[in-house]
Design a protein that fits this description.
Layout lengths: L2 H11 L6 H24 L9 H14 L5 H17 L6 H22 L8 H9 L8
Length: 141
């Protein structure tokens, strides 16, 4: 079983609270890896191109990992980013769409580190608004 599947299964079952710290550590490692990779893909995303497939995959993986955590803000933001990227896929992204994805990714990084420290986080509303309110870019065809 893949580490992600084991993590989700263990978090859902909740049978062994002594291992919860280890699973939290694993979650943090996996999420940090996804965020770092997503940041790199988004930073290298050429202007005037469609959303990179790797960004879609990484954002979906991060959203899946985050949904089981005790951080509604982290789960909501990661799901909103994944949804926005999927909505824009197949279309040439505007500079604003690219920037809102980068801003959301940076906010996810910040929230992950606060979550690791046990600090409750709240996503600034403007970040969620930017992800949800943008119209699609132009069709690449």
């Amino acid at each position: 079983m893949a580490p992600e599947a084991e993590l989700l299964q263990a978090l859902k079952s909740g049978n062994d609270p002594t291992r919860l710290g280890a699973w939290l550590d694993l979650f943090l490692q996996l999420a940090q890896s996804r965020i770092d990779s997503l940041r790199a893909v988004l930073a290298a995303w050429p202007e005037g191109t469609v959303v990179p497939f790797a960004a879609l995959r990484l954002a979906d993986e991060l959203a899946g990992l985050s949904v089981e955590q005790a951080s509604p803000s982290l789960a909501t933001l990661s799901a909103a980013l994944a949804s926005a990227l999927r909505r824009h896929s197949g279309h040439i992204a505007t500079p604003e769409q690219r920037q809102s994805a980068l801003d959301a990714c940076e906010e996810l990084w910040r929230q992950l580190h606060q979550h690791a420290a046990g600090v409750r986080v709240v996503t600034p509303p403007h970040i969620l608004q930017k992800l949800g309110s943008q119209k699609l870019g132009s069709d690449p065809n």
